[in-house]
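User: Please predict the structure of the protein below. I'd like the answer in structure-token form so I can feed it into my own downstream comparison script.

Assistant: Understood. Taking the following sequence of 132 residues as input:
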Amino acid sequence: MKSRSDKLKRLVTVQRHLEQMAEIDLAVTTQQRQEVAETMDAVAGAISSLNPVHRNFSGIYAAQIGKLRHKDTMLAGVQQMHEMRIVRERAKGDRLEERMQEARLLEEREAEDNAIHDLIDQHVARRDAGDL
């Protein structure tokens, strides 16, 4: 049978994995926001371009900028959600790790107490055997 600290250690490992997954999700969202920002810069450059080809498509570019701003706003919300999730998962992991360490200390104390009780029992048993 596994001890409480071993079970908690496994939970800590799972929780740290969840934390890493949240960090990966945040990285993906940050990368997507970066790509949207680069696209917005390119479209803004095309709008302000003196090239006659771009002038004909300025209405399309303006609509695209609006869509990109909306997408960036949406991704900013998602990014904030992932940041909060990372904090929450990290806090859970830290609490589980503290509980694991406390459980390990209690198990070590119990083992030490049992060892002392065994020594006392052995000493009493020898003394009683010597009296007979």
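That's the full token string. Helices lie at 4-47, 52-56, 58-131.
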